[in-house]
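ok trying this again, last paste got cut off
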Amino acid sequence: MTELKEKLIENIILIPCSGSEYHGELARQAAIILAEKSKISVITSMTCSTIFLKNVLLGKDKLVEISKNHLKNSFIVIINGCTTSCASEIYRALEIEPDLIISVQNLIPKQHLNLNDLNAFNKLPKMSEIKQEDLDLVINHILSELQKVRLAIINF
């Protein structure tokens, strides 16, 4: 995390996990709500690490450079779904250091599976059944962490 004292933030970029399980979907939905409907939405947008990585891999240097310049002038919040931390790892490999990293799995632990139980995967929370209390917990945690770094955020 970048060391900050007081920093005027005019633009927050949320980069959520785009994973294919409950915690990744929870990260993505929290980012959408923060970017569209929260008290910080006026200065917040969301980007996708998959699209950014696609541009890097396909050699679309102009698009990569535009994205990097935008990120340099923003406060970057990465919201990882699990401890694999794919979103963080992608940006670190591209030498882009986030200002804040959130791990949804640290807030809402994953269930341990008994791999001998053939129905174990059916017992996991479904992506289409995100619990409102889990979503509220993640959103409030992100807002709290932004306040902890003592940002001077417009309208915050």
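PB: full thing came through this time. The first helix runs from residue 22 to 37.
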